[in-house]
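A quick aside before the break. I want you to see a complete sequence-to-structure record at least once, exactly as it would be stored in a machine-readable document. Don't worry about memorizing anything.
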Amino acid sequence: MKFLLLAQFLQLLQIISPAVSFTVSFGTPIIINRSFQITSQSQHQPLISISTALNASTPTSNQQQQQQQLGEFETLNTQANDAFKDIDRSVRLYDFSGSNPIEYRSMWEVQKSLVGAHVNRLKVEFQKDKIAPETQFMDADAGAGADHLELQLGASSSVVGINDYMMIPEQEERIKSFDSLILLQHQPVYTLGTGSDPQFVKLDEKRLEALGIDLLRIDRGGEVTYHGPGQLTAYPIFDLRGYKQDIHWYMRALEEAILIALENVGVQGAVREDDVTGVWVNSKKVAALGVKVKRWVTMHGLAVNVDHRALGNFDGIVPCGLEGRDVGCVNDFLDEPITVEEFAVHLKQALEQVFEIDLKS
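That is the input. The structure line, written in tokens, reads:
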């Protein structure tokens, strides 16, 4: 009952003040941190100074510790809901899983641009005192994603910036306000959530520079994690009004999609674990989650380690703040290895199943 009242209060506050968002942190030690965050700032957080950040860190008290694995996954069954019945639930897909790794900051800006378009749409609908579920999904005449996203990768190119291959920020505002899913691999980067403990980063600045790994504090929940080649990252930009307005359900739904995809590629024994988010196989963490929600519109998302390239740089951190726990990849548990792009096919199908959507590129 307390969580329901809190969710209703947050929704009311977001209707009254569009500049307010909230971040749900699922870090370790197991913390749920609901904080109000003014989002008028447009600049990135600077690269973190390890020496300064370590001295500033403070331990978490026992009173702050709560379970991460709250809520359960339940099937949406949207066709039984009069609010969603007969709505074309088409979601725009931006699939770069088979392209060159993408720099993190650029994609962060893309996410914020897409979320901003959602918020602008909602402002208009709030003023009309009517939220229309169908407006978050693609119009039939919206055009194919390929009309707006043309890859321009040179044969010798190994590192690209966002402006080299996609035009999401320059798209028409209405197109950007559709629910979207972005799939990609990142260039090497460690990211810390809003409440992450920098002590979980083991490397100093010189070592990070030598390895070519970026370090950023970003606006998501969760502890420090790594993104890089060999790992599939998915960013759902979903308005939860069209699904279920429950953050815990959303986290469990992302995990459910990963579990389905792993089973479909032949990985046996993938599970959730009590008190921690993510997906595990033989006690190895193969998938991590961290999200932010603004006016019930999601950003950030999930990452699945697919091949062994994804694993090496985890040695430089305590992944997700879980001391003594190992990370693994999908190919650890398959006789025949698969590529990130091949696994992306299965994850797309699983997300369509769980969220009852139709992905269209």
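Two observations worth writing down. The longest strand covers residues 284-294. Residues 2-360 form a domain with the BirA Bifunctional Protein; domain 2 fold (CATH 3.30.930.10). We'll return to this after the break.
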